[in-house]
Amino acid sequence: MAVTEHAKKTILEIDGLYLSFGGVQVLNDISLSVPKGDIFAIIGPNGAGKTSLINCINMHYRPNRGRIMLNGRELNAYKPHQVASQGIARTFQKVELFHGMTVLDNIKLGRHFLMKFSILGSFFRLPHIVRDEMTHRAEIEEEILDFMGLSSFRYHPVGTLPFGVRKRVDMARALAMRPQLLLLDEIMAGMAVEEKEDIASYIMDVQRDLGVTIIWIEHDLSAVMDLSDRVCVLNFGTKIAEGTPEEVQGDPQVIEAYLGRQRSELGQPWEAP
Predict the structure, then answer these.
(1) CB within 8 A of 129, min separation 6: which ones?
(2) Could you say which of 151, 178, 205 is where a domain stops?
């Protein structure tokens, strides 16, 4: 029997979140709940506060007020690396990879905080340290590289690869962290149509096959409406709508935010900007 919307557990809950820099209010009383296993989109015009919200979830930015809870555990006092250890991984709006390193070495960096480590053990290459390293490497090579279609690129320097492949490496590095919640910040930005179609299929595979909940920011509204279970819309740091893609795209405030007041009042249909 299919899991109903009401039966789904909440993996992430944000309650009354405020963020400001100096006198500039960036996020204003944001509250939302993300169901476990969903693809949850955050959209809005440029400057709406989308990336700032993502940065608060992984505590890169510390909110002024409000709570962020993962599986009922409050994250506000955590540092970014502690948030990562709770099962939150992310990609970045700009590809943040080491271009001179191979695909394999870049992805292995995502697994680093899960590996056993000691200065003496690593220096003398003690057996238990080596075994742990080889176990993690085997999982990355046999599962993550293959899952993301990167096996043939494993020894290629990242800087020599096409842009769409580099985006997949960034996503694979995040998956190496064994996340339960994956944050994707404009994963499709700068991609050609064929590359967008490829990454869309990987996003669906991560949700379906790995059971990872995904929160993603995306400007390609047709992709958002096709892939997302729920959509949250921000405008000038305020949440103006949340619901299914069908509910959101018919909301007058959303249409006004994207198309302007005059076209909204004329009842213009939804269009991607």
Answers:
(1) 116, 117, 118, 121, 122
(2) 178
Query: For 161, phi and psi rounded to 5 degrees?
Result: -95, 155
101, two tokens:
């390193």
pLDDT digits (tens, 9 = 90+) for 20-50: 998 899 999 999 999 999 999 999 988 899 9
In angstroms, the CA 30 to CA 16 distance is: 5
Q: Please, is 170 exposed, middle or buried when counting C-beta atoms within 10 Å of its C-beta (0-12, 13-18, 19+)? A: buried
| Structural domain for 41, as ranges | 1-87+180-244
Maximum CA extent, the chain: 73
Helix 193-210 to helix 163-175 angle (10° resolution) is: 10
Would residue 251 count as lying in a domain? no
Reported in sequence order, the residue ranges of the chain that DSSP labels E, i.e. its strands, are: 10-21, 24-35, 39-43, 65-70, 73-74, 88-90, 181-185, 213-217, 230-235, 238-243
Domain check: are 73 and 10 in the same one?
Answer: yes
Distance CA(14)–CA(140), nearest Å, equals 32
**Which pTM does this prediction carry?**
0.85
Segment holding 221, helix H or strand E = helix 221-227
